[in-house]
What does this fold into?
Amino acid sequence: MVRVNAGEGEGKVSVTDRGVGIPNEHLARVFDRFYRVGGASDAVAGQGLGLSICKEIVAAHGGRIWAESEGPGRGSTFTFTLPLALRTPAA
It folds into this structure.
């Protein structure tokens, strides 16, 4: 599920899945380069770079990114915010 909203000068996008979930003790590290949650290498293919790249892109645009999960087997939500551009009237 994807949710998008705006307010307080920033846009917010949240993506929720029903995947394997992330144990609470790993949430702070999932955006580290090459980090893989133990056991995830068997369940999901990858090199541990995707979330790290996302974090760098979001940060380069002045935003924030984070992950939330209720634990293994409960899915995860990944959320990022970006500053909204102020619209100026056309000349």
